[in-house]
C-alpha cells in the first residue's frame, strides 16, 4: 500500500510542473510582446481612426486562458499592425493604438 501511494505521488510530481508551468510561460511571453504604436494617415479624423483602430483590434483579438477560471483578451501585435497598414496608416503620428493585453 505504501509503495502504491509513493508511485502515485511520483506520477503527480511528474505531471504537476507541466500543467502549472506552460500557462505561466505563455502569459509571460504575451505580456512582454504588447505595445503601443502611434499612427498617421492623411485626411483622417479622430472618429475615422477610432473606428479603424477598434476594427483592427477586434479582428486580431484572441481569448487566452490565464487560469482555470480566468481568461483575458490579447490583441496579436503583428496582425494588428498589418491590419492598420492595410487600412492605409503609417507608423509614427498623433494617434495611439494598442496591441497586447486588453484592459477593457
Question: What does this entry look like structurally?
Answer:
By secondary structure, the chain is α+β, with helices and mostly antiparallel strands. 53% of the residues lie in helices and 24% in strands. It is built from three helices and five strands, in the order H-E-H-E-E-H-E-E. The protein has a five-stranded antiparallel sheet with strand order 2-3-5-1-4. Strand 2 (61-65) and strand 3 (71-75) form a beta hairpin. Helix 2 packs across helix 3. The N and C termini lie far apart (53 Å).
| Tally of DSSP helical segments | 3
- What percent of residues are in strands? 15-25%
Evaluate the radius of gyration.
21 Å
Low-confidence stretches: none
Shape: elongated
Mean pLDDT: 80
Features of the shown structure:
104 residues; alpha+beta; 5-stranded antiparallel beta sheet
How does the SSE layout of this entry go?
Blueprint (H helix, E strand, L loop, with lengths): L1 H31 L2 E6 L5 H14 L1 E5 L5 E5 L1 H10 L3 E2 L3 E7 L3
Antiparallel strand pairs: 1-4, 1-5, 2-3, 3-5
Helix pairs in contact: 2-3
Summarize the structure.
This protein is α+β, with helices and mostly antiparallel strands and 104 residues long.
Amino acid at each position: 500500500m505504501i509503495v502504491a501511494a509513493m508511485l502515485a505521488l511520483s506520477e503527480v510530481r511528474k505531471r504537476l510542473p507541466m500543467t502549472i508551468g506552460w500557462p505561466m510561460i505563455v502569459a509571460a511571453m504575451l505580456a512582454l510582446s504588447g505595445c503601443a504604436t502611434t499612427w498617421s494617415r492623411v485626411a483622417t479624423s479622430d472618429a475615422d481612426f477610432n473606428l479603424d483602430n477598434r476594427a483592427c483590434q477586434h479582428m486580431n483579438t484572441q481569448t487566452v486562458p490565464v487560469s482555470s477560471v480566468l481568461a483575458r483578451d490579447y490583441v496579436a501585435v503583428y496582425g494588428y499592425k498589418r491590419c492598420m497598414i492595410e487600412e492605409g496608416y503609417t507608423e509614427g503620428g498623433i494617434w495611439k493604438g494598442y496591441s497586447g493585453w486588453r484592459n477593457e
